[in-house]
Structures are given as C-alpha cells and as structure tokens.
Amino acid sequence: MNSNVLRILLLSCFVFLLTACVPSTSVEDVDTILIAGYDYIDDEQIRGTISIPQFGRLETGGSMKEKYLSSTANTVKEVHAKLQTKSSKPLTVGKLALSLYNEELAQNGLGEVLDNLGRDPQVGRDIILGVVEGSTEGFIKGKYSETETAAKYLTGLIRGNMEKNFPTTNLHQFLYAYHAKGMDGYLPLLAQEENYVRLTGIALFQDGKMVHSIPFSKSFIFKILKEKFQQGTQEVEFKNRHIVMENIGSSVKYHVKGKGSDSKVRIDIEITGIINEVSSLDVLQSPKMVELMEKRFEKFFQKQCEIMVQDFQEYNIDPLGLGNTYNSQVRGFDINKWKEIYPSLPIEINVGVEIVETGIVS
Amino acid sequence: MSKITRENEAGSLSIPENLLVTSSSAFFLINSMQVGVGILGFERYIARDAGYDGWISILIAGGILHILLWMIFQILEDSKGDLVSIHRDVFGKYAGHFLSIIFSLYLLLLSVTVLRTFIEVIQVWIFPRLNVWIFTFIFLSIIYYFVAGGFRVVVAICLISTVLGLPILLLKYFPIQLANVENLFPVVDHSLSDILKSVKTATLSFLGIELLLIYYPFLKYPQSSRKWAHFGVFFTVLIYLGSALVSFVYYNEDQLQHMIWATITLWKIVEFPFIERFEYVGIAMWVYIIIPNICLALWAATRVLKRIFKCRQKKFLWVYFFITFLATGLLGDRQSIDLLNKYTGIVGFYVLLYIPVLFILTKLVNKVRNRK
Fold it and tell me: CB within 8 A of A265, min separation 6: which ones?
C-alpha cells in the first residue's frame, strides 16, 4: 500500500518534471538555415550569406518565399553571431542542406569552415558542399524556382547529377579525404547563369585548398576512375559520326606493384554499356561494328583517363586516393615517401568496354 | 561437487525460490552490463595504439573475457556463495569484508561514470543548457524505482535493453554504403606490443562480467547458466567487433582520432524521409542501454553492503543514490569527465586482474581445506 502511493507520487513527478528540463523551441519559432554561403573578402574577413525559407504563406497561392541575410566577420561562428542580430527568430543549422564557398575562399583554404561544420553536432554528415564561381551572395539570392526553395532546387540538381555523370560527394566524404593520408578531396563547381544554375565541373583540392578544376564534360571520365556506378552517358566520335554510350555498370580497381621508388600503379576499369544514340543507322548493321565501337570507346577512355591522371600528377593532387590504396597494399607506408614518388609514379590504365545492347532498333 | 549442495548453499544465503531467475537471464545480465556508454566512442581508443588492426585486439580481448568468465564460474562453483562469502572464506572476516566494500565502491564509481558520461553526451549533442542536477535527479529516481523493485525487475530491464538495442545495430547499413574496405588492409601492420596495448584498452570496454560474482546465487540453475553467460560475452564481442569494423571502414585513421563519439557521428549519415537528424533518436534510445547498466551496478553495490552489514538494502541504496547524485552534479567539464573515465578504466583493469588472483587463491584454500 505504502509503496504503491510512493510509486504513483514518483510517476506523477516525472510527468511534470520531464517536460520542463530545458527551454524548448518549436519549428515555427526558429529560422532554419537551408543554405549558407561564404565569400572571401580579404585574408582576415569572410562574408556569410544564408537563406531561410518563410513558411506558412504557400496555401494562398503565393510563390515560395525566402529570406536572405548577409554579414561580414572574421570567423564563421562570428558571421553566424552577426547574422543572428539581423534575424527576429533564433537561427538553427539543423536542416542545413548546402554549404557553399566562392572560388577565392576555396583557393585560400576551407580548413576553418570545415572545422566549424565538423564540430557542430547539429550539422548532418550528408549535406552537400560546393564551390561557386563568382560570389555566393548573388548565387544564393538568385531566384531559380517558383515552387520550391533554392535549397531544394540546388540539392536536387547536384544529387540528380550524382546519380548520372557526377561523382558522389558530401560532407563526410570531403572530411574523409581532408583527413586522409594519401587522398585529396573534390567538390562540385557551380555557376549561376541568368535564372538557372549549371554544374560547371569538379573543383580539386589539396589539404583543403582548391588548386585545380576539371570541366563538367570530363566528369564521366573522373567518375569511372573514381568509383563503381551504374549510370551516366558518354559521347564519342566514331567514323565521323557521333555515338552515345549509356553506362549500365562500371567498376574500377587500383593495383600497386613494387615497393619504394620502383612502385607502379595499374588502374583497371571495366565498363558495360548500351548504345543509346547513333547519328546514322547504317553504322550498326553488323556485329563486327559493335566490336569496332568497343575498341573505339576503349581507346577513347584510355587516352582520356591517362590525360586526366597525368594532370593530377602534375598538380600533385590525388583525388582518386591512390595513396590510400598504396597504404593498404604495401606494408610500412610512409606518407612523405609517397608524396615524393607520386608525381613521377608510372600509372598504367586498362579499360575494357563491353557493349551488350544497341537499343530497340537495329 | 554435486548440484544438490550448491542449491543448499544458495538456500543458506536465504534466497527464496520465487526470487531466482532462469538460466537464459545470464545472457541478458552479462550482455546489457557490458554494452553501455563506452561503445559510443571506444573505436578511437582501440585504434590509437594498433591503428586499424584494432579489430584483432577486440577478438583477443574477447578470448580473454571468456577465460575470465570461466574462472569466475569456477570460483563460484567451488565456494558455493557470492563474492562476500568467498572473501570471508579466503581472507577472513575483516580483511574479506574490507575487500568486498572496495568492490562495492568500485561498482559505485562505475555507475557514476556511466551516468555522467551519458549526461555529457546529452549535453554536447542535444541540450547544451541541460540542468545536470535536475536531470540526474529524475534519472536516478527512475533507477531507484527499478532497483527498489528487486533483482528480478533489474533482470527484466536488462532483457528489455538488449531487445531494444538490437534495431539500432541495423543502422550500420547507412555508413556501410560509404565504406572504404581497403582501410583494413594490410592486416597486422602493427607490432605485437602495439596490438597488446590495444588489447588492454579493448578489455576495458568489456567491463561488466565481474558482477556475476554478486548475482550468481540468484541464478536458479547455475550449471546451465554457464553457457548463456558465455553466449552473452560472445554476443557483446560480436557487437563491438561489428561497430569497430564499420567505424574503421567509414572513417580514415586520422579522422577517427578526432571523433570523441564515433558511433553517434556515424548516425549522422543515417537518412530517413521523416527524420533529418537521426542521432537524436539514437541517443534517446540509448537511455534504454544505460538504465540497466546503472541499475545493475547500483543493485550489486548495495547488495554487497547488505550481505556484510545484514541491514536493509534500501538504506544503502539511498546513501549510494545520494553519492551518485552529488558526484554527477559536481563533475563539470569534458576534462574531468575524461579523467573520471580514465580512472574508472584503471580501477576496472585491476578488478579484472584480481579475478585470476582470486581464482588461484580459492583453489589453494580449497586444497588446504580438503587435506585437513
């Protein structure tokens, strides 16, 4: 009896106490930052711009409303503190989807911004980072869509392309490469054009600093060198005409041979594809033609991959993570030694292309 | 040693049959005590010495744990009692009781460490402005409610905790999508001494089997509990091994050293359409993993005192709760919590070292007695 009374008392205690432990905030009472962009001003200062969606007015049929705020300060946290002074509601980064940097800032190093993103428990690990040509301020403020927020438009654009020709990227992967010995990161490169946004290429980094970039037209080449995937298309010239191959399964493997300065790297790429578009039907008439096409594609990919890898070696960047592979296949890995041999490392590339179908017409 | 004598001995500890628990409970008791707040961030410590060969250390540590568990069962079967009566038999009344009280204080330290570390997780990840005093009070009230319910209630909590913990393991699916399996190679790239150092660290993550010394008389069929207890340890090793492997392929070595809570950071990549930040759910679910930890430790700690002073357990419970409350509230920052964890680790290591010693001593004492 006595213990029952005590139990009920305790239980009712919890009911009241558990609701009042910390000050709570509801979704309507906070400003959720969806996009944050940072621009380089000088060695000391950066300018931050954020976009906040304004909910609750859509039912009336009005367009999607967004609020933009900008501030200049010395550190990322300070930018956020200053932005808060311009906002009527508390700012939260819990739903941050995109973090953008202008090219100049990227070239000067993203270390500080990355530390801020990596340390904040509220920020997710699958957010997208990107480098913007020009200023991020104008980029974020550009109205791109009537029906959806800029954040949704931009993440949709990048994620959609990640499933096709563009290599996968998110905060975790960039942080992984940033901390890794023998791997350098890469981010999407974006540009604003009138009222839409274009993925212009891949920004390549070295120790958190952007040092080089490759155009979007080469991103399929980069992707087959980098990862296993099942999408994407590549066009190639064949007998003065153009044919387009759709990739239905591509895999890549790195092999390391030898030790120290005698090391050699071999990259094996296997692509299975279907012919998607042929500018003239008569090219497809014989099975021999398909074989010739395979040869043509193999030669094309081999050449392009070699050019790209040599380019990486010239800039002494390793976005493919060959150093990581080297580490896993050779005992007693020494990062300094690797950095020494990498620019002159012989890299052999073997590409195998198999065309399995040529569409529903013959 | 026949079964009947053991049951008689259990009877002499005056535990009525309706308070005994079934053999399979040993599985949940062992497993839920071993899986606690440590698993949220142990990867970093294991990888510090042995790098990504750390998973080998986990396997070795698991083997050691099985041997220690076997020893504990051996000790208990020979003496037919619990830690208090073993200590009394081996060291005499005063020295024996003194050692038992130290063990009780160790369990108190363990529960303070678990509670404070978990509250720190909540403070860092969810509520930076959390009032530790109020939260500790509420948390301890819940735990008091369970512990006051007696051993069988604590066992039930252990079972619920193990079952509720299982779905969390499925979340490893998301980080595996981004795995770099080559991180694990080349296998055994570190020296033996490095791996042994990391074995020590790994063993500390598995603290919790020593509580068997206290609740053993509550097991109705000790003989068949044996295999369940070993299953429990095996399952724990599997969970730790899986967690470590997933973290190792998801982070690279330098990155992992920056992760205080590798497992929670791992949850950040989990993506569901209906929930953006899964780690909040994960941490909330972890309360169920933490509660049996503290319940069992505090129950065992006060049980020791009850056996020594022949007094009501609830009185000691109040005292221990008060101490836990004060200690948890007073420990403020990351540094002191880290220090607390470090010292608990050291004490725990000696407790584990003490088990083989006790094993040899009981064997010797038994031999001498049998000669007489």
Answer: A254, A255, A256, A257, A322, A325, A326, A345, A346, A347, A348
Of the residues A7, A115, A172, A252, the best mutation for testing chain B's interface (the one with the most B CB atoms within 10 Å of its CB) is A172
- Tell me the CATH number for domain B44-362: 1.20.1740.10
Say what the pTM is: 0.83
Chain B residues lying within 8 Å of A14, measured CB to CB: 138, 141-142
In this complex, is the C-beta atom of A253 within 8 Å of any C-beta atom belonging to chain B? no
Q: What string of DSSP letters covers B21-77?
A: B-TTHHHHHHHHHHSSGGGGTHHHHHHHHHGGGHHHHHHHHHHHHHHHHHHHHHHHH
Q: Does A179 touch chain B (CB under 8 A)?
A: yes
- Interchain contact, B182 vs A175, CB within 8 Å: no
CA distance A218 to chain B (A): 23
Among A194, A219, A244, which residue terminates a domain? A219
Tell me, what DSSP letter sits at residue A217? G
Which tens digits make up the pLDDT trace of A111-122? 888 888 888 888
ipTM above 0.85, yes or no: no
pLDDT average, residue stretch B344-352: 90
Measured between CB atoms, does A18 come within 8 Å of chain B? yes
Structure tokens at A106: 């990227």
Is B182 at the interface with chain A, CB within 8 A? yes
Question: Which among A7, A118, A328 has the least Cβ separation from residue B186?
Answer: A328
> Does residue A279 sit within a domain?
yes
Query: Considering only CB atoms, which chain A residues are within 8 Å of B145?
Result: 7, 10
Cα angle for residues B278, B284, B290 (degrees, 5° grid): 130
Residue-wise pLDDT for B66-124, tens only, equals: 999 999 999 998 887 889 989 988 888 899 999 999 999 999 999 999 999 999 999 98
Same domain, A207 and A301: no
**Within a domain: residue A3?**
no
Which structural domain, as residue segments, surrounds residue A60?
23-219
Is the pLDDT at B202 greater than 80? The verdict is: yes
Which residues in B lie closer than 8 A to residue A121 (C-beta atoms)?
124-126, 279
Instruction: Say if A17 is an interface residue toward chain B (CB within 8 Å).
Output: yes
Question: Does residue A35 sit in the same domain as residue A140?
Answer: yes
Q: Is A10 in contact with B258 (Cβ distance < 8 A)?
A: no
Looking at beta carbons, which pairs linking B334-342 to residues 24 or more positions away fall under 8 Å?
B334/B120, B337/B116, B337/B117, B337/B120, B340/B112, B340/B113, B340/B116, B340/B117, B341/B113, B341/B117
Q: Is A2 on the interface with B (CB under 8 A)?
A: no
Q: What is the mean pLDDT of residues B348-366?
A: 90
B276 in Cβ contact with B138 (< 8 Å): no
